[in-house]
Amino acid sequence: MQIHRSGSVLLTGAVAVALAVTALPAAAQAAPSATAVISEVYGGGGNSGATLTRDFVELANAGSAPFEAGGLSVQYLPGSPSAGSRWQVSELSGSIAPGGRYLVAQAAGTGGTVALPTADATGTVAMAAGSGTVALVSGTAPLTCKSAADCAADTRIVDLVGYGSAVVREGDGPVPGASATASVARAASLADTDDNAADLAAGAPTPVNAKGETSGGGQEPEEPGPTEPGDVRIHDIQGTTRVSPLVGTSVTGVPGVVTGVRASGSRGFWIQDTAPDGDPRTGEGLFVYTGSTAPTVKVGDAVLVSGKVAEYYPGTGTQSLTQITAPRFTVLSSGNALPTPVVLDARSVPGRYVPSADGGAIDALPLDPSRYALDLYEALEGSRVEFADTRVTGATTGYDEIWVTVKPRENPTRRGGTLYASYEDQNTGRLKVMSLDPARPVPTANVGDVLKGRTTGVLDYASYGGYNVQATELGTVVDKKLRREVTRKQKKDELAVATYNVENLDARDDQAKFDTLAEGVAVNLSSPDIVSLEEIQDDNGAVNDGTTGSEATLKRFTDAIVAKGGPRYAWRYIAPENNKDGGEPGGNIRNVFLFNPQRVSFTDRAGGDATTPVRAVDTWKGVELSASPGRINPASPAWADSRKPLVGEFVFRGKPVFVIGNHFASKGGDQPLHGRYQEPTRSSETKRIQQAAEVNTFVAALLKADRSAKVVALGDFNDFEFSPTMKALTKGRALKPLIATLPPSERYSYVFDGNSQTLDHILTSPGIRRPDYDVVHINAEFADQASDHDPQVVRVKVGGGFWH
């Protein structure tokens, strides 16, 4: 092993050659489907030389029973996804008959002369003709995987097809031959062997819709809308549980007044009955889903609606949204008064969150809106609500959304947020707010600001965040002047150690991101002696070419810190094996130590690499590391496809201190707090508990060799201070979590869905006494943020008992 004077660890010889080889992506393999499959994909529609004017995806049902497509989506990813690539979603509705087809029309081009047959669903995705990946997905939340291996692990994927040179595909290779004039289509048998190249072949496009029509077929005229009210009212459809008693049945002439219109995304409109039945359990509002067709109604229209009652599940583990699909409607009159909105405040929203089903589904439980907040929100689903003078608990996002609380005294933080303090004590007053008027988006707001005045809208439900208000009238933001914190400078005889998740930083990022993060280190953290970084990517970010080094990234970052008035930091890290540490495919995120060589030295000891475990060695001089830097048991299953902790031995004022930089597995895959399963299963927790046990075992080995060893374990542990992960990490009192030393209203470093919570931690061994610890709030509470995490720092005074 060679140590760069700049501070990075480089591997030489055979090891370096081995790590330079680009690993072939594993195949993405959803279980072979015996029912719904992707039967044809065409991305050449409207291109030069094409006959068809639009791209399309065709689905087929190989089963013997109808396949329900409602709540599913077709999603598209470019064949060679970049850091900015995102899965694009097209929502589905209706069902696929046994042996039948289902046509999803996508973007149109300027070429071609022949239209598709009438589509069963319509998206706006401009698919590439030569290369791409299409997935049939349970739910409508965008996928996040960008490699075959990561997609293989996503249980939401029903079927997946990669064509051209697609990185994400099933089997050893994608389907070749797609072009402006050729689609890729499954064999007539519809067999699915999870090998795209074997199951599909290129040929002339042959789109077929659910009616069996092919290109050039005419569109049947729409049936007329209802003219008289039927026997069914909205409260009959909503019923007294979360699932409609009329689900799957057709209804005729349901009366209501239009209270909101959504012309993009999941298009449709809300109606509400002006003659409620008086039962607080049965909702009076309902969403009418118009699919690819923009609604033609206006707020205030009195309508009669016919169609099919459906329960739409927007994501895995979510509750459902009751709606009418395939609607036909008649406008009876316009300009009608709207129903009086229900006021949501501390008096009307119950203090308990949701009933328990011992981990099962709460769908069939009778609603009790006077007892449970989520039961109240479900009973108001689709209805008009209002609140006033609410505190912002989650800053405005890039999607023009904010979180507010209608309960200003519910678990407040010192800076205006709402604290998430335990699994049992949920915050019932949180609601997400977005605007239904594209011309008047939600204004920019930070945590602690106030949405002053009245906000009125329709209560909706979505996969991200659960219950939300689609606002038709918005209050105004009152800026409460939240400011970024600056921690004090460490004294001469204090060692300052910090942790900072810099959110997928790589050398291709804009200079502005480097500058803002650098200011956080140099100014807000007051230039700590040691900074443990999480989410440093390799130098070309998500480009998946085998690059694993981070020299250029760290050079730009440390240069930016100097430019902001900080010291010239050196660095140490161990490059991961390519695509073995999780995170963004091709990004190779890793933990890194920065240190100020004018204040602290690093003990370089050869032997550490991506696969060799570091050990605690008992010597006559005291405990030391077998390699520095090193990794904790990297071959353990606990770290499979996850970041391995980085361990380093430092010396401050002549004394050794051991620092462990951590980034545990994410919480992805856990059931949502607002979901249909209560209490929700935290499936991702199993891996973090295993990872915590590995770190605890290593720290215990250090303390066995020297019970006064000075250990600082810190980083993004992706779990709460009250979690089983933290209990495993602190077993035997090997480590003490410093977050517990702060007042409860300050115990947070991250804001998610309007909850201020702690995912980042600093823990210390018993030999470290009287630490001065601070969470420095500079990101998580702000709409303008360089990272979604707040950094933390601990200062220890040597004369105050750091060593004895």
Structural description of this entry:
By secondary structure, the chain is mostly beta strands. Strands 31, 34, 35, 36, 37, 38 and 41 form a 7-stranded mixed beta sheet that branches. It has a 6-stranded mixed beta sheet with strand order 10-9-4-3-13-14. Strands 29-30-28-27-43-42 form a 6-stranded mixed beta sheet, with helices on one face. The two termini are 34 Å apart. It is globular and about 90 Å long. Helices cover 10% and strands 31% of the residues.
Distance between the termini: 34 Å
- C-alpha-based Rg, rounded: 28 Å
Q: Roughly what fraction of the amino acids lie in strands?
A: 25-35%
- Name the average pLDDT: 91
- What characterizes the major β-sheet? 7 strands, mixed
According to DSSP, the number of beta strands is: 43
Q: With helices defined by DSSP (H or I, 4 residues minimum), what is the helix count?
A: 9
Shape: globular
Provide the low-confidence segments as ranges.
1-29, 217-221, 799-804
What class, by secondary structure content? Answer: mainly beta
Helix content: 10-25%
